[in-house]
Amino acid sequence: MTTTVLTRATGAERARMTWPTVLALHLLPGAATFAAALALGPLMRAWHLPPQFALTLAFAFVLTPIELGLLLRAAGWSWRGLPGILAFRRKLPIRLYLLILPCVTAMAIGLVVLLAPFEQRFLDVYPMAWRLPADSTAFPVSTMVGTLLFTLAVDGLVNPAVEELYFRAYLLPRLPVRGALAVLTSAGLFAAQHFWQPEKFVFVFVAQVLLIAVMLRVRSVRISIAAHCLTNSLAILMALVLMV
Prior knowledge:
Layout: H1 2-7, H2 19-46, H3 53-74, H4 82-85, H5 94-120, H6 141-171, H7 180-192, H8 201-218, H9 221-243
């Protein structure tokens, strides 16, 4: 099934990219985001804002604009041209969302619990300036709630939707490999571009393999957008609940 889906000759799936192009388009936006977050770290301290807000701002003003810009460039700088470069645009009935999303969410939660001990060993790989301090009361509740709400909009809704369109509907069909190797390659490069979360590489890779497999099975990027937004939003909503 996977091989069949990835070799269908639709308009969005014909052109295969070279490996240098694939690596650049997968990794450079993440590298720019990582650099921006590091640069914003001292400003967060100076402005008495939570350190992790630097990453949210980098998502909002670096990562998402770059990915959207690359999509628009491929579409001839036309919003109307976007559907022509995107694959897996099938509309799904509501019942499939109701069936698939709880399963995907449960698997994501299970992975988080399973990998937690493994991830703890890698928390100090990078001196990440945006990690929450041990005492979250260091910031007023209003500040935390405000930054978390902005993060919910950016990293819970906008950024994951754009990421799925960019990585799954645009880049995945253009990989120079097909079938299961394309799934593993896409998931691996997506995990690798999370320079700001080295401890999450394994989680992101495994979660993406599962999510891509589901997306290919139903031939719809809409389900991966919904699942990505849902899983990202849950963690932020839990933080909000703890704040209030």
